Amino acid sequence: MRRHPWLVVALLALLGVVGLGAFPARAYFDQQHQREELARQVDELARANAALAAERDHLGTEEAIERLARERYQLVRPGEEAYVILPEAGGPPAASGPAPAPAASEPPPTPPKQSWWAKLLSLL
Predict the structure, then answer these.
(1) pLDDT tens, residue by residue, 45-64
(2) pTM of the model
């Protein structure tokens, strides 16, 4: 090694340059990946936005408003009659089958768990 000290210096310099260049390169590739991910999210949000705008435009029509008023709020046009079908008197039919068995007696409660230091203090 004494014959070629410039080789050692050159290798150390090369390692220094590679070491100093590795961190910015890694940061650059991380930022590229983050940029691609954010672009993908923007595309998804733009598609969702377009779908919501189309739904907004559709729900603003007279036909959609009338359909929603009839379905959700049971509204009718003037001159129409609304009918409601009620269930039979006496409530819902009773379930058939054997009656459920009474609950078995509960096991005795377990004492609360104590930490090791609480057990040690109770012994003293």
Answers:
(1) 999 999 999 999 998 899 99
(2) 0.44
